[in-house]
Design a protein that fits this description.
globular; 6-stranded antiparallel sheet; 6 strands; alpha+beta
Length: about 150
């Protein structure tokens, strides 16, 4: 019997990007052409990776058509309010079956969770990843910025 080959992280991410692009083409409020859907899906992947590693500054279009520049994270050690947030009293509903193009992030300006749509991402301005080398337990982390 042939052993099934496990997929690499790269293959899994590629499949995720394809699935998101397909959702943006078919299931979104404003269906996108394939090339634009893939561009937005890749941008969403890069944004989510950055949020998980540090702080990301990005721009998206709000529902009223105005542009908003947001600064967010999903990484411990970047924002004290995020680190100390209590989840016990919250009822977070994530219904990916009905809308798989929306994602949650911690807004560093508003100190609360916000949602962005992959459909409405305009651009990623900067990604800052904490430098954990040679740090003490109670020191704040230096952020290394990437564009």
């Amino acid at each position: 019997m042939k052993k099934k080959k496990e997929k690499t992280t790269r293959e899994l991410l590629g499949a995720w990007v394809c699935e998101l692009a397909n959702n943006l083409c078919n299931e979104s409020e404003i269906p996108l052409p394939k090339n634009e859907a893939f561009r937005k899906a890749h941008m969403a992947r890069k944004l989510l990776e950055g949020l998980g590693q540090g702080k990301v500054t990005f721009q998206y279009e709000k529902q009223d058509g105005t542009l908003r520049e947001a600064e967010g994270t999903l990484c411990k050690g970047v924002d004290v309010a995020f680190d100390n947030h209590v989840y016990a009293d919250e009822k977070v509903e994530q219904n990916y079956a009905t809308d798989s193009t929306n994602f949650t992030y911690w807004d560093l300006e508003k100190h609360g969770f916000r949602t962005f749509s992959a459909l409405r991402i305009v651009k990623i301005i900067a990604v800052a990843i904490p430098n954990y080398k040679e740090h003490e337990l109670h020191e704040s982390h230096e952020l290394i910025e990437f564009v």
